[in-house]
Amino acid sequence: MFDSLLIANRGEIACRIIKTARKMGLRTVAVFSEADRDALHVRMADQAVAIGPAPAGESYLCTDKILEAARLTGAQAVHPGYGFLSEQPDLVEGCAAQGLVWVGPHLEAITSMGSKIAAKKIALEAGVPCIPGYAGEDQSDAALVAAAHEIGLPVMVKASAGGGGKGMRAVFEPIDLEAAIRAARTEAARSFGDDRLLIERLIRNPRHVEVQLLGDKHGNVIHLFERDCSVQRNHQKILEEAPAPNLTEATRQALCEAAVGLGRKIGYDSTGTVEFVMDAATSEFFFLEMNTRLQVEHTVTEEVTGLDLVEQQLLVASGRPLGLTQDQVMCTGHAMEARLTAEDASDGFRPETGTILKWQVPQSIRCDSGVDAGSAVGSSYDSMIAKLIAHGPDRDAARRKLIAGLERTEVAGLRTTRQFLRDALQTKRFQSGEITTDFLRQEWPKGWRQSNGDTLVYAALALHLAPKDSKSPWQSLSGFRLLEAAGRPAHAVYLDAKAPENRVSVQKVAGTRFVVGRTSDEERLEATWLAPETLRVERNGVQEIIGVLISNGMVHVWGKDFDAAHQVVQLGDYNAAQHQKTTAAPDRIAATMPGLVVNVLAEKGAAVGAGETLVVMESMKLLMELKALAAGTVESIRAVPGESVEAGTLLVQLQLNEEQRG
Fold this sequence. Notes:
By secondary structure, the protein is an alpha+beta fold.
């Protein structure tokens, strides 16, 4: 057994691997980009090596830098985690050349399954059902269009390499086919360095079910049961569970046997996952792909089997045979995982960047995370900040436990999907287990919306009650005189500076009692600080505990049913301040979030129509098309391909047509 391990990854999975390695007595080495210098995984490891600037292409995706870090620290083995280099042959080859143990499957397994085209051929040879489609050598647009028409629309255009939903487009109408092929090819080339595509029949009512495999270097391959990962957005998984609900024992057995058959076909010798798409109406399933690595959702398998999959990986990589047979693997109870991301789910899941000011997860649930209070969340990497996992004796018990865990999780500083995940778990469709990959669109066809209710009331109360000698950041804001020298007055009117029509009056009655008035009504509340960040509010005899944190001009409030941040201002100070709110204008194409300018399609002086794509940006690994809101002429171009920009940066200025200006 080796005694030192380098983790060629970051964030949550790096922390997860370090925990198991530490339990096994291994010395750990982390690598980090400049953006991650103070990250949690860097602080957890025994040693850490800087490998370059923030862009992954200049740091975490550089095989030579990973290998050099191993040489510098004397690491004996390399674990790639998932994503980044986990399925890249050059790192496997580099480890072999340098005499390092590779914690993953053998090279041929990675290369054969790394191409969806090659993997599909091998799966067919192994007797695994595959979706009818085209995976030919002719990769011209014409050949792909012809294949799609022969298969019959709707079809799925997908990248041959990689995963995570990148390079995938569902096509329902012939007019959209060529554009989908071009977009998928571009995204595949950018994400995986391989622009090959395949076309498959689109399963209209699909479930996403996968089987966890575990193999060793002695010819043993077993399964660790199946998972359901059907709750997705843009092919990115959101909620996962094990075992899959509403499967007959015959279907479960057939799935697992198919996965093990494929594993044995390629001599699989590590942890890996065989993914299937299943017709929810008929339970007919088809091979999708094989991920030759640990997966994000491995945690739910660990919870129902009692196995540490990272430990199993490390033992197998050291040459040890599996310590258990198929008959010894038991599935006990049910487990669910929710991926908590730094996104505003009520605004189309817009990625959030900033600093996590408060981070507390209840001990009742498992938390695999790469952040803590003070961690910075940028736009260079994936938006997932934690995985929250619950295990129970049955599916409903696990679901209820995860809901309660989400409600008690405290996070402030930026918006997260905490409330959205809770609401998804509470829907009747999820409760019944009758879920498909169209779950989100069916449940919230117009998008999910969060109702913050009385959060401005809580924020105003918190600011009004803050100790008069506190070092409030409001005191340092030019133009905003929020605190009087003698403390807060007995009565004041507060408003949200970003929505000034929302106003709350707070008047002290006696002791901890206050009259709180809104636009149309008022009520009596009692409010008391229980701790520096905990406010107790009582109304009509019912108490509620509110989390509060005042930082950098914002009052962050959170509770079981809400998360919000308000820029709370006293009315007089607001009227005196020069407050300017940036709004979108049809003649301005601006960055909607921090990111990288990938391509500029506009030309100065060119006429453009409403809906025409002018700039392509990349943020958190996703490509976004910024379109003209109205017809006009390109007056100036400020965007430069390859340039990183902040949210709100002007990229293209238009001169609107006469009728548009009117």
